[in-house]
Amino acid sequence: MEHANQELVSEVVAPLPSNSNWQALKDAIRGTEADYTKIDLKRAIFLLAVPMILELVMESTFAVVDIFFVGKLGPSAVATVGLTETYLFLLYSLAMGLATAVTAIIARRVGEKKMEDAGIAAVQSIFLSVLCSIPFAIAGIFFAKDLLAIMGADAWGIEHGYRFTRWMLGGNVVIVLLFVINAIFRGAGDAAIAMRVLWIANGINILLDPLLIFGWGPIPAFGIEGAGIATTTGRGIAVLIQLWTLLQGGKHIRVSFSQIYWDVKIVLNIVRTSLGGVGQMIVAMTSWIFLMRILASVSNEAVAGATIAVRLMMFTLMPAWGLSNAAATLVGQNLGAGHPERAESSVWRIGFYNMIFLIFVSVVYFTWNESLVDIFTDDARVIAIGGEWIRILSYSYLVYGWWMVSSQAFNGAGDTNTPTKINLVFFWFIQIPLSYYLAITLDWQHSGVFWGVFISETSVGLFTLWLFSRGGWKAVKV
Asked: I need a labelling partner for 408 at 20 to 30 A (CA). Which of 182, 255, 384, 445 fits?
């Protein structure tokens, strides 16, 4: 750890020459065949982090644009999106958990220079993605109204908003595949490909959103259903591009037709590694479901305000998640290549960069919280509630950035069980009871939920960073 921190100081003091920065930026966006286990560590971080950041910035841009257009339909429409996302969060937990395992396994195989094994693992992960999506598709197609009613949706949401829920859950296979195939590219070091795919997907979404929600010319106005159609269409086209690119071959990974078969041994290894990732996501996402249920019992405006605040949070956290994803790839590949100290050094450096960025975001949140929410709604109550949560978030972002990087370091090493156990304690046993106590028992209402989140997530960030510093993740085998 001391060696890693010394390297970090020297890295900050001695940046790359300016004349090489432009070439590095072009390489990052175009993609490069560089070996991330051997090149200069700062350059490796830059080449991976830039496309990962741009990928996720586009994703979060769509989330903000989407809620901007849906917000024109009123608080009930925004609340419907928020309640639907509570179920999508369960889907995301499976997709992200599987993607976490896939990134770790692909990165380890690439670091070991076992490219044939990397391609076969990629195929098995795609098969698993399709299987995971089936239950959610059935639930969304046949039980959309019931699912919204369970979460406390109002009459408008149940009678009209269910169409959005049906599209999002019924067509969820494209969401899962988009997550997992991009995880394949990222684990292999082809972050530029993952970036371009997501830009295409969300570019289509942004163009279709206003067109299908409000209508134009011969195209009818589908209302909130149009948002679901636009998202499913954009992501479906992106998945087709992903599959074609995998078969054609990226800079670091390619799948051949001879590798397209079911391999039970590899599938079981992916499942075993992904259980921890799925577990940590399920814990975090179900915690969010409980929080939304508490907010729904307070008011519809509380749900709408929280939904807008979370979209804004997603937007500003995407660069930080991009950096964190770079840490996962570097940890996995360098452990595979037998360089654990280099893996650790990459995490401390990326964590430092994350901290600096999120301090800046915190200042923006603290200063202009209600002004940011005001962009998406003209409801004074929703603006006040959303602005309050953004202000409270500003107090914890510094620690939150370190939590993101250290958690991804565990995941990149294949140690997905440790973050699961941490999340279980801090989210289920602390966050949910504390939020309920403050919001309902003490009658702080929505403010109680927001402060419960602040206390629990600040605590989990500090604890995860401390545990990472102990170094047990270096001995994990995948």
From this structure: 255
